[in-house]
Amino acid sequence: MRGDATLPDGKVTFIVGDDEDRIEHVSKSLLCVRSEYYGKMFGIGMKERDAAEITVPKTDLASFTAFIDYLCTDQLDLGEGEGEQARRALVLRELAQMYQVPRLELLCAQALQESVGPASAVPLLEAAHATGDGRLLAQCRRYVADHAAEVRASGGVEQLRDLGVAKGLLGDALDQVVELKMGAARTAAGQRAAP
């Protein structure tokens, strides 16, 4: 941030979500250096350059605070608990995409891939389907197929909301049944052919 006269002076307060919670006194210069979006927002000639407050309507305070904290400290905080961490990583990844912070987006994608487990596989599968994340979608589908009993015991099946995802999982299950039957038929044929 040193020596760049184009960076704005001052701080900004974010008004977050429907409850209009406040995140106060965030350095505009730091935001510009860490986010291309804010670099443009607070750029020369833009009306927001001198704004004291910016409204962020479509997110929750905890997630946006984690986003701002990441920009300020380069530390990713996904919260506590498997379900909360996966949910926060999803929200932070969306914020990273929106505010053009590619490193945070990659860190969130990695955290999501690492958080796939019995309780999180189905919600993550639906989120991957909704956001078009093919890599996470494939990983979750494979996890559900390989750990069906654990996913079912965790309540994952009951969590399904998206009919398209349900149809996809049913298709995966039917494909596995076909593979099992073909494998059994090959084994039986091999046993009959053996002398």
From TrEMBL:
It comes from Emiliania huxleyi (strain CCMP1516). It comes from the Eukaryota. PANTHER family: BTB (POZ) DOMAIN-CONTAINING 2B-RELATED (PTHR45774:SF3), BTB/POZ DOMAIN-CONTAINING (PTHR45774). This is BTB domain-containing protein. Gene3D superfamilies: Potassium Channel Kv1.1, Chain A. Residues 10-80 form the BTB domain. Pfam families: BTB (PF00651). InterPro entries: BTB/POZ_dom, SKP1/BTB/POZ_sf.
